[in-house]
Amino acid sequence: MSDPSASVYQERTYGAHQIGYGQRPGIIVVDFQNGFTDPQYPLGGAPLIRRAVDNTARLLEVGRRCNVPVATCYTAYNSKKDMPYWKVAAVMEDLVEGHPSTELDPRLYDPDYDVAMRKSGASIFFQTPATAYLNKENVDTVIVTGCVTSGCVRASIVDSFQWGFRTIVPEDCVGDQDDRPHQDNLRDVNRRYADVTDSAEVIAWIESLRGRNAPEDG
Amino acid sequence: MSDPSASVYQERTYGAHQIGYGQRPGIIVVDFQNGFTDPQYPLGGAPLIRRAVDNTARLLEVGRRCNVPVATCYTAYNSKKDMPYWKVAAVMEDLVEGHPSTELDPRLYDPDYDVAMRKSGASIFFQTPATAYLNKENVDTVIVTGCVTSGCVRASIVDSFQWGFRTIVPEDCVGDQDDRPHQDNLRDVNRRYADVTDSAEVIAWIESLRGRNAPEDG
Amino acid sequence: MSDPSASVYQERTYGAHQIGYGQRPGIIVVDFQNGFTDPQYPLGGAPLIRRAVDNTARLLEVGRRCNVPVATCYTAYNSKKDMPYWKVAAVMEDLVEGHPSTELDPRLYDPDYDVAMRKSGASIFFQTPATAYLNKENVDTVIVTGCVTSGCVRASIVDSFQWGFRTIVPEDCVGDQDDRPHQDNLRDVNRRYADVTDSAEVIAWIESLRGRNAPEDG
Amino acid sequence: MSDPSASVYQERTYGAHQIGYGQRPGIIVVDFQNGFTDPQYPLGGAPLIRRAVDNTARLLEVGRRCNVPVATCYTAYNSKKDMPYWKVAAVMEDLVEGHPSTELDPRLYDPDYDVAMRKSGASIFFQTPATAYLNKENVDTVIVTGCVTSGCVRASIVDSFQWGFRTIVPEDCVGDQDDRPHQDNLRDVNRRYADVTDSAEVIAWIESLRGRNAPEDG
Q1: ipTM at complex level
Q2: Which of A33, A160, B169, D125 is deepest in the core (most CB within 10 A)?
Q3: From C117, which residue of chain A is nearest by alpha-carbon distance?
């Protein structure tokens, strides 16, 4: 992406370091629930999100095979009472517990493997069991997938960084309603908090670890 | 700002609601420390940040006169040990406790009035006393000031929203290294989490509350 | 309760202040789920817990009539994967999503009124939406009910205090497996973090606020 | 300690499991600041606390030699504004930034090694960088030291458990104002959240790990 402000940030030392991979991956899956992945809902089915669903499905298949911890979340509320002050009408109307748009997309969710959680904020880490679970699993590198890049994914990337994880964003596993905010947010986080890469590289890394993290495999 | 993607988000109901003011303001001041406000440091003194300092100084003068709680923070670490994985070289080199770039800018910080705190993440709310303090003060509306819009300010806005506050961003009280990321991030949060306005409007609102929040005033 | 160590703490200024009531109550209900309230389960049905259920039912009836926010929680996990390191066998075996011992006791839970949440730690505030919800409702005084006093109730009291709420514990609305740990923990928190009282006093206070918090009432 | 309620809890499966050591220790040091360790202050110098200081000094000497991460904290506030509702007069009067009782005891604090942090709640983990730091260091087993057992230590033990760490309490490294609350709280946490042991055992364990965690040592 061409970015006229790139040199300003570069001169001020943004993006001077790469983060790099650690030794113990974990995958977070942000809001791949019907409300965002199914075109019948107001927020659902944007092309970049459909692309992210396909690539994340492939990544998760490898991750589960290699015993990588997976934390997945959906956004839902009891009612308007416990909603923060959202400006998005479809969030306020549809993301209430029991509404079909709060169900995790079955193409991505494996209830026998994933650790699922409801969230009430933007970030998968905000007041959910995600941090404690990944900490208990000794994860040091968080792979971020889900939607929407310029909303809940951005918030989750910042929190992953803040909690002390190495944070990796395969660009083709996160999606947005439109391309420009998608790119803008990847630009911002790539300067500060996370390495932006693609799913092929992440899959290759996970497979390279296989012997270490899954000693019981043949 | 002209934004080719605006109609896509509008159709999907982003920005359909305004948040509006509550009854009890609080002001947060993010990272107005010498490292960002003084041009002698690698991250310091960008024009948008200098503008934000001037406008925030005026806002704080009114806020303190009207008994509005003020929480202010700076970023600093003991050493590289307790730093998260930053990609910004100047953060890693300079933001260590004791370095002059970690000192709060005296044009903005009033040690007899403000509640100051050190932070280790991007957001002023991340693992600091800010949420507990504003909750104890019964603040319902958080006014966001500081820098950098596309970094710590964005993270603080998201957290203010997540913690259940009405979140107001006077655009001229937050600053960035360059204009485009500044605008991009205001666009994203204005669609979802916060009302973006200016300091004149916020000052007028605070002054209109005066009788209620400062009963001891004449 | 006679306590030989009372004078030691008194001389060191513990318990020197009372906290007192604020103006806006909220009620938290900790783990009144079948696993603790129903005697058919290993952890269920102790006399002090049955007493607490009865008294809390009365308190909640008044609270709901007076529009007091109610946050209620149960402990449950996806599986052993996302459990912290518990030493209690029945927690590890039974508190898995879908098991009947994770269902909220219907004598206490009103799904049309209460804000319910799953928790994974000991405290109702630990990585749940409770703090954000009570903050959004401008609650300044948290009334603590539930079980077990020497476990999840103690943890919830400490967190209520830490988040900046005035914390009130009606002793007859919290229960334990046995009396001594119940008393020991009330003693500890009453010295530091909370006012320990009874449900009659709390109910009288809530009813005295009625006009202010429920203006729509006749 | 003889405990008449022990059989009640045992029958209900409390304490049925031991937690055990992991592979990567971290040490937390709670409130070993002059206000608690120096007898000239109202809260300071109780015999159990003096004993805990001596034993913790020995533990820390071994821990630092073996490259074990150490997080240490003190309690302090800007002023009464940002204090939660304490009932302890000496906390409210003395624990203000700049007062000598907020200084870390130099017998225990090594500024070149330890990661120090100010806390505003009871727990060392409450809204401080401790969790992120220990997570970044891949710590899986937290050794708890400090004071006061029936206050900030208890709260820190619960949080260590909640965040997913294996939690170990060497009984002779934590201290209280009097013996009975010390014992009562160790009893409660030993049933649920932590293994209570002594410093000799913990030191032996840390030394046994030496080769693994300090590969540069001879």
Answers
A1: 0.96
A2: A160
A3: A78
